[in-house]
DNA sequence: CGTTTCAATATGTATATACATAATAACCAT
DNA sequence: ATGGTTATTATGTATATACATATTGAAACG
């Protein structure tokens, strides 16, 4: 969950939202290092020419999100980055399949260019409407379906994608080759297969599946949203790590 | 005489916090089903005898947490509840539950001390046989089962655990307090609930569940293996990260 | 009958104000 | 010095108020 709402460039952002993003910007960029005391509420309210309540709303949210720590009488301090190490690699399904010693096959099922619907914008966390590319792809290990991919690409951020058919190359590797991502978010959950997914994966409707959704940003612009659906028995995510500072 | 006033005994919680937990309680318990319109801000402010701003603070947080959806002129409506945990960070279920504003309850279901079976050794990646403690625990959010825990503790590495009943404290927090872990491995997958899990989580057998298994080492010695099983609809793991640093 | 306009309404944001609470600094007494 | 008291300060919570904004239902109109 992004702390900074994707509320987008045009001026229609609330003030506490702007204060919040200004501060988290400074924290994320490293300008304000961990331990740094950020200005007091009354200082910020002077800077932004607003009431303390407005500043308080922004700072409370930052505290809730874990970016800062607030201490009475002392002020608010930048916290050390959380240990959320890059545990989940951006995975290339071809490599996963080939690591199993199975032949990999990719298939583009559908491709639609369209103006973003409300749902598209929600998935991409996109503020304004614009063109998107919707893709549906199958990944196979030998004869068996290995994963089903449903992807949205924000054509405003990646206009070249409009000219690519994605028949010969999967969108994942294509994007990695040309769009440097600056941030990604994964959502992982279990679901029951609906009929569409069941057909695509050749399993029973209602069978458990692992869904991995990834949203990617490049320099604060939403780039793509992808949902991989794996039949339960074919996939386990493995993440190994060590504790970082604390 | 509102819904409120019973307690006040110990809980020195803020009012907006109490409004928040009252409402999320009703949502999570199913008393207010998805789609149900919750009372208007002005109704709640009358019920709780407080200002609209206080109610607004609670409802805004509920909306941000995804439990409700707010529509101007129409009111606020219950959404399908989903908890979010930062995957590899928050592993204390109590904290996850309390973050939802719900009362947390822990229950030890079973406890067996035994010499490690072959299966135990496989789970713990243990070379030689030795004593282990097998635990089964329930974690509840309000009245509803939130997660089921199945755990093995390597008593060779943590002999003190043999003297602990784990009735008053869950094994997770107990271990964290005394065994510094140096490495951990997660495995995440989707499964269909077997009869045992279905009964424990109060769901249908065969329903999809998210399973998170964690193995922990301390200075190269296997410490514990734990498997958390969450009902699919109640849980999404979220991990957000940047490529360069953490 | 369909369309436009308008008023009513619930939420969204911001303000000034007030008092509570926790942590620290400063002070004082032993 | 040492320990305890007090004052100061920043945050925490709550209030009443105001106006903006989105949406809806109904009235007015062609």
List the helices and strands and how they pair.
The structure is a homodimer of 246-residue chains.
Chain A: H1 15-29, E1 37-38, H2 41-47, H3 52-65, E2 68-71, E3 75-78, H4 93-99, E4 104-115, H5 118-124, E5 131-141, E6 144-154, H6 171-178, E7 183-192, H7 195-201, E8 208-218, E9 221-231, E10 237-241
Helix pairs in contact in A: 1-3, 2-3
The structure holds a DNA duplex (30 and 30 nucleotides).
Give a structural overview.
By secondary structure, the first copy, chain A, is of the alpha+beta class. Chain A contains seven helices and ten strands. Chain A folds into two domains: about 60 residues, Orthogonal Bundle (Arc Repressor Mutant, subunit A), CATH 1.10.10.10; about 140 residues, 3-Layer(aba) Sandwich (Chorismate lyase). In chain A, α1 packs across α3 and α2 crosses α3. The C terminus of chain A is likely disordered. At the A-B interface, β7, β8 and β10 of A face β8, β9 and β11 of B. Chain A binds a DNA duplex (30 and 30 nucleotides) through α3.
